[in-house]
Amino acid sequence: NTASLKGAATTFSVGTITRSPYVTAGGTHIEILKNEFNNLTSEYEMKMNIMYPSEGNYDFSAGDAIVGFAQANDMNVHGHALIWHNATPSWVENFSGTDAEFEAMVEDYITTTLNHYKGKVRSWDVVNEAFEDGTGHPLRNSVFRQKMGDDYIKKCFQFARNADPDVILFYNDYNMASSPTKRQAMFNLVDELGDLIDGVGAQMHISYNGPSAANIQAVADGTVSRNLKLHFAELDIRANPEEDTSLTSLSSDRANAQKDKFKEVVQIYNAIPLDNKFALTVWGVRDNESWLLDFWGVPEWPLMFDEDYNKKPAYAGFLEGL
Ligand code: XIL
């Protein structure tokens, strides 16, 4: 079946995100998931604030709906994300116990979550977005760093490895292509983690006019040279990076420039060695469902399907990259 993204991409999984209400409702969105994709990520329901909303109370119901749907439709599930400063429940932010109790709580959370999804979730982003963007890219001073120390990331990977030695463990972050210094900080971390890490998740929130192919290639080269798996994660390609608020629709010039960038990203990914391949994941199906609209409040058309579920030039660009 080459008449689909997953059918055409024979050497890696093609991923996207979903939400439990979509899975429950069915409809065109779900048909597209089934037809086009074979790797599924929960957009926000497998993060700590949802899975562990209050002390001692785990809630996997939303994630279970997504995982059940994926299993019923032969899709792999990528778990995203165990530790993210932006999805930490308030009871954890305001943890009242000792540092040792905090660390035991994190170990219990990671162990319980990986055990719950053992055999159902192929891979996890253990830590997401740990670095600051500013000079030197220090570790963010999250509650995890404050209470567990600078090696909190290593501890979290060790907890995950102990809980499920078969699951593929990723570190995931953004601006890996556009910022060579942040990329280096990430690779330094990866080198410190050694055998505890299996792969690098490079979030691909990019624009039609950047970063360059050479900088995207550098992410691939650094990952391949370390013998790790590469996840081109969270791909969306902004067609209006200037944030021109007067734009009300996507011009054909912008749609074509976006198509070329989709093609370039897929070409770079497709050319890496088979052993380093994992998945290329787009961060959404339809333009109007993209997080860029809600979260950043900008007019954007960053995905491969328009709001009526028509395939955009970007879709053809993806196929041409293979
Ligand atoms: C975003 C989701 O798309 C939103 O629905 C949610 O409100 C916030 O998170 N980097 C990540 C993703 O790693 O988890 C983020 O997803 C987008 C940025």
From TrEMBL:
Its EC number is 3.2.1.8. The keyword Protein transport does not apply. Transmembrane segments: none annotated. It catalyses: Endohydrolysis of (1->4)-beta-D-xylosidic linkages in xylans. Residues 1-321 form the GH10 domain. It is an enzyme of class 3 (hydrolase). One of its GO terms (molecular function) is endo-1,4-beta-xylanase activity. One of its GO terms (biological process) is xylan catabolic process. Keywords: Carbohydrate metabolism, Glycosidase, Hydrolase, Polysaccharide degradation, Signal, Xylan degradation. Belongs to the glycosyl hydrolase 10 (cellulase F) family. This is Beta-xylanase. It comes from Algibacter lectus. The lineage of its organism: Bacteria, Pseudomonadati, Bacteroidota, Flavobacteriia, Flavobacteriales.
